[in-house]
Amino acid sequence: MFKHLRENIYAALERDPAARNAFEVLIAYPGIHALIFYYLNHWLWNLRLKSLARFLANIARFLTGIEIHPAAVIGRRLFIDHGTGVVIGETTEIGDDCTIYHGVTLGGTSLKKGEKRHPTLKNGVIVGAGAKILGPILIGDGARVGANSVVVKDVADGVTVIGVPGHVLDHSSNTDTQKDEKTQRNAKFDAYGVAENMEDEVVAAEILNYLRVLEARVQRIEGYEKRHSSY
């Protein structure tokens, strides 16, 4: 537990420029406090003291604003930044070196007990603020999920997903050299799951949505004029 906690603290120092030293992270970061509770609760859960584990998990949620089910499986060096509103469900699996921002839900879509209902995040995944990853889906190594995205399908290794519903940014026109650059970019940390070319993609999506709204308005106006021109 203490080894994992030390790794979590240094992960926060590496990924948050506001973190000044290990002591400050330990006393002031709710994501660290939530993980301390999780390590204890997960141990109790495996000892079949499940009601006690759930009770302490509820206390942790009250104190930190972060809800982690004791049965969830969490790898090493997880960093939960800010943390308020994070929900990590019962059958969630999180790999090593992942980062989760506030408002993230790793939720289930099935009511059947005893089956895999929540997502699996492989190593190095970054989930931006407010994102929802729902169901027993797989988020591949090094994938990025943009802020406020809703993801309900598997995500391949190293790609960036944005939008509602979540869709992969189009890299189909990349040359081999560009693909190498993409691999290098995914190897570094992208705060909030924001890729370098995401802004243009988001703007394009917003423009398309606005054009659809305008088109619908024009059709309603034309229909209104046709109906009244017959009088």
Layout of helices and strands, plus pairs?
Layout: H1 2-15, H2 22-28, H3 30-46, H4 50-64, E1 67-68, E2 73-74, E3 79-80, E4 87-88, E5 93-94, E6 99-100, E7 105-107, E8 120-121, E9 126-127, E10 132-134, E11 138-139, E12 144-145, E13 150-151, E14 160-162, E15 167-168, H5 176-187, H6 198-229
Parallel strand pairs: 1-4, 2-5, 3-6, 4-7, 5-8, 6-9, 7-10, 8-11, 9-12, 10-13, 12-14
Antiparallel strand pairs: 14-15
Total count of helical runs of at least 4 residues = 6
What is the typical, i.e. mean, pLDDT?
Answer: 84
Percent of residues in helices comes to 40-55%
What structural category arises from helix and sheet content? alpha/beta
From the spread of the alpha carbons, the general shape counts as elongated
Measured between the Cα atoms of the first and last residue, the distance is: 80 Å
Radius of gyration (Å): 21 Å
